[in-house]
Amino acid sequence: MKKIFCVLSLMLVTLAFVSCSKNSPEGVIENYVSCVKSDKYEDLLDICYFKKDLTDEEKAQYAAFLRDKMGPELKKKGGISDLEITKVDMAEDGESAKVSYSLTYGDGSIKATTDKVVCIDGRWKLNTGK
C-alpha cells in the first residue's frame, strides 16, 4: 500500500510540474521578466536562442553585460511591478511568434515592446538574433 501511495504521489507531483510549464510564447516573456526582476541573468540566457551555443565564458560575459546595462536602469525606475501580454502573433508554421507586451515600472512609467520568440526542439526561446 505504501508503494502505491508513493508512486501515485510522485505521479501527481510530476503532473503538477508539467502543467505549470511555461513552454509557450507568452511563457518565455513571463520567464524573461521573472529572471530580470530577480537579477538572474544567467538563467535568462538559458531561455534565449543563439545561432551558436555559448561557451561558459561567453555566457558569463553576456550575463555581466546584461546586469551592468539593465540593473541600474531598473533600479532607477523602481523595478518592474507588472507585466501585461497584449498580443501574440503566431507564424503560420507555429515555430515562431511576435509577443507584444507592456512593462509597468515601480515609478509608474510604462514601456510597450515586442519581442520575437522561436520554438527550438519543442522549447520556446527568446530570439536574440545573434
Task: Tell me what you see in this structure.
The protein has a single domain, classed as Nuclear Transport Factor 2, Chain: A. 45% of the residues lie in helices and 30% in strands. It has helices spanning 2-19, 25-37, 41-46, 56-76, and strands spanning 48-49, 80-90, 96-105, 110-120, 123-127. It has a 5-stranded mixed beta sheet. A hairpin with a 5-residue loop joins strand 2 and strand 3 (96-105). Residues 1-20 have low confidence and may be disordered.
List the helices and strands and how they pair.
Layout: H1 2-19, H2 25-37, H3 41-46, E1 48-49, H4 56-76, E2 80-90, E3 96-105, E4 110-120, E5 123-127
Parallel strand pairs: 1-5
Antiparallel strand pairs: 2-3, 3-4, 4-5
